[in-house]
Please model this.
Amino acid sequence: MKDTVVMITGAARGLGCAMTLALAAAGARVAALDLPMSDDEMAKLLQRAGQGAFADRILPLHCDVGNALECAAAVAATVRRFGAVHGLVNNAARRLKNEGVELEVKQKFYEVDETVWRGVIDANVTGPYLMARAVVPHLMAQGWGRIVNIVTSYPTMLAAECSPYGQTKAALEAATVIWSRDLEGSGVTVNALLPGGPANTRMIPLQQTADRTTLIQPEVMAAPIRWLMSKASDGISACRFIAKDWDPQLDPAEASLRARSLAGWRV
Model:
């Protein structure tokens, strides 16, 4: 993947960190986007990359995905550093936060503070759109590219007391299909990827699950994201891939088939 440049939002921790390290270790150059408040986690990511001697392949960038100017600036900085951009992973997301910390209690939709509600919508729906809008001209100009939207399991999208997170991920899944159709024939594919259950990220509070080994570990995203960002996935678009169903012991083509279904709700 040495000729591939990928941008990952929400890259400093959890799923984003795992995907950043997996791609960079495989030879890709990665622009790792996150908020300034995540600088400590980003430093740890770069330290891990340094231990593997591939830290020079990672470009850490500050970016609030809900801000169009910052999204455009991040794309420009990526192209300036690496000379191109080939893929985007829309991973950054919020559930319910208070001063940057995930809230531990679930809330009914009518209990959610309006400011928090709008912040989640901005991060989870507007953010992926703004990032994709900034990246797509580069992808279309070169006739090849990848967009991967990180979504969630269908039960979570419909769960009680999961507003507005659930519906934002449903919106991103629908966007996966719509964007794929809008980009048909351009060489740019759009797919959805999800862990396939509760993952060991800060989305699951420590108090909720004390034994974190029972959760899906972020590294499960490594094999599918490498395949999705490679030429091996040419022509595959508007699909959803469940990472826990991906068997890394299989040939990647066979593993992708077992983990794949159509994205969205087809009628």
